[in-house]
Design a protein that fits this description.
Number of strands: 16
Distance between the termini: 82 Å
Strand order of the largest sheet: 1-3-6-7-8-9-10-11-12-15-4-16
Radius of gyration: 33 Å
Structural class: alpha/beta
Shape: elongated
Number of helices: 18
Largest sheet: 12 strands, mixed
């Protein structure tokens, strides 16, 4: 039985002792009077009593249930109408007080992050209209951990809003592991830093994985990049920047399929993805000839995947514009690294942190040909087999004026440098070499963070110390390492 307002009779509802009464006029096609009477009443219990009396007139349970459903529906419709009026009033107010034109508002919104832009769009109709402009979605960043639910549909809608202005896409779970040092490098001035730290403290470096984040609401799947191939590849053809962080659902096939649709890609960053380096580099070599920056961080530090000679040659030929290269956590030999350094003429930034097979013999060749290269930054952090002798020789070469463009060198290692073999460790490079480097090249920035002699049970806070005598690390400290393999005999496999 529908709710019949014509059956509402004028009645008085009084409180004990006298008070406010609620009078409802006959409906008579005058909804405004009915609403006015309801709104003027400040006694909520009177409305409830009226509903109870109306429901008592219903005889069967079906009629009573229907009456309650219609009452709830009426309340919901009233709330929706009030919310709509509130937004409209805010829009009218903003239209009068907002000092910027539509074009300027769009320009301001285009400078906001994606999350902030979504908040602005939900404020009022005026802001929503400006925030829906395609220009505002040229750079889509959905990496903020504040986004509780990011789905494939969210990505697709954002890309559709961007339209022809689509230029950048960043996806994944942000955090310490999602921040690449290659994107925000800054010289710190004239200094040589030697830090002695406990191994536990140094283990909290960039390659430390924090898997305690709540990924239960993270809904991106291997299909999240399919939108780049839509419209016959027109969407991906406009993309220049692609950053993906910790999306374990993406496999090699899905990633390479997306990359193949992005011929204009110039900046690619992959952090903790379960993909094959060989396949990714081959795909980039075939389709992304304008690539300038590549950062690929292995999902598992010290994994056995290496870089073959053929893949290196193909990568050098297919992506000649590379100026920033970061391959972290892979098996890289000195021979491959030397080929990459000499093959990329525009290379200025290199980060081969945690390269498990790297010993440092490539530094000899770099010292002799370094003045022909534009290399400015070299990061060899936590390379387990990096030898003290090779580092010391390179430091003396730098003192002699070699590698004149090089300004930043990071040789930090949470277990120290290798000596005769990788079981014997040294906790700092040559004191004499460091002293000469400081004297001959005062603007050079050397970072060398090594474990202190104290045991793991001691405080793990770092101490900055002077140029004291290097001290060897004990085997008990070194034995905690579990992410690296001592097998170096597999280098022949990479040459295949």
């Amino acid at each position: 039985m529908p709710m019949d307002f014509q059956r509402i009779e004028k009645r008085g509802c009084h409180r004990s002792g006298g008070g406010i009464s609620l009078s409802l006029p006959p409906y008579n096609n005058n909804m405004e009077e009915v609403l006015e009477a309801l709104l003027e009443s400040s006694e909520s219990h009177l409305l409830a009593e009226s509903l109870e009396r109306l429901m008592e007139k219903r005889v069967t349970d079906v009629e009573k249930n229907y009456f309650l459903e219609k009452s709830l529906d009426l309340g919901q419709r009233l709330q929706e109408a009030a919310n709509r009026l509130t937004r409209q009033r805010a829009t009218d107010h903003n239209s009068l007080t907002w000092p910027l034109t539509h074009d300027l508002t769009v320009k301001v919104f285009s400078l906001l992050g994606t999350q902030t832009l979504c908040y602005a769009a939900a404020t009022c109709t005026l802001f929503n209209k400006s925030a829906m402009d395609p220009v505002c979605y040229a750079d889509i960043d959905l990496t903020s951990s504040d986004f509780k639910i990011i789905s494939n549909m969210t990505v697709s809608k954002m890309v559709q809003r961007a339209g022809l202005f689509f230029r950048s896409l960043k996806l994944g779970i942000s955090g310490q592991q999602g921040k690449s040092s290659t994107s925000s490098f800054k010289l710190l001035g004239s200094t040589v830093d030697i830090h002695l730290k406990s191994a536990d403290a140094l283990d909290r470096s960039w390659h430390y994985r924090n898997y305690k984040q709540d990924r239960s609401s993270f809904m991106l799947t291997r299909s999240c990049l399919e939108t780049l191939s839509s419209e016959n590849g027109m969407v991906g053809s406009m993309l220049k920047t692609l950053h993906l962080f910790n999306i374990t659902e993406i496999d090699t096939k899905a990633l390479c399929g997306a990359i193949s649709s992005c011929p204009s890609l110039s900046d690619l960053e992959l952090v903790d993805l379960h993909v094959q380096l060989k396949s990714v580099l081959s795909c980039l070599s075939s389709h992304c000839h304008f690539l300038e920056r590549l950062c690929c961080q292995s999902s598992k530090t010290g994994r056995v995947e290496g870089l073959r000679s053929y893949t290196c040659t193909q990568f050098l030929t297919g992506c000649p514009k590379i100026s920033s290269l970061s391959l972290k956590g892979f098996k890289l030999s000195d021979q491959k690294l030397d080929a990459l350094l000499k093959g990329f003429c525009n290379l200025k930034f290199v980060d081969f942190s945690t390269a498990s097979n790297l010993t440092g013999t490539f530094l000899r060749s770099l010292a002799h040909t370094g003045n022909e290269l534009q290399l400015q930054t070299l990061i060899l952090r936590d390379c387990m087999h990096l030898k003290e002798g090779e580092v010391d020789t390179f430091l003396f070469a730098l003192c002699s004026g070699e590698c004149k463009y090089l300004q930043y060198l990071d040789i930090s290692n949470k277990d120290g440098l290798a000596v005769a073999d990788w079981f014997e460790r040294q906790t700092s490079p040559s004191v004499e070499g460091i002293a000469r480097l400081r004297s001959e090249r005062p603007q050079f920035h050397l970072v060398a963070e090594f474990p202190a002699e104290k045991s793991f049970d001691d405080s793990d806070e770092s101490e900055a110390v002077g140029l004291g005598t290097p001290s060897s690390i004990s085997m008990s400290e070194f034995s905690s390492e579990s992410t690296y393999s001592s097998d170096t005999s597999s280098d022949s496999e990479e040459n295949g």
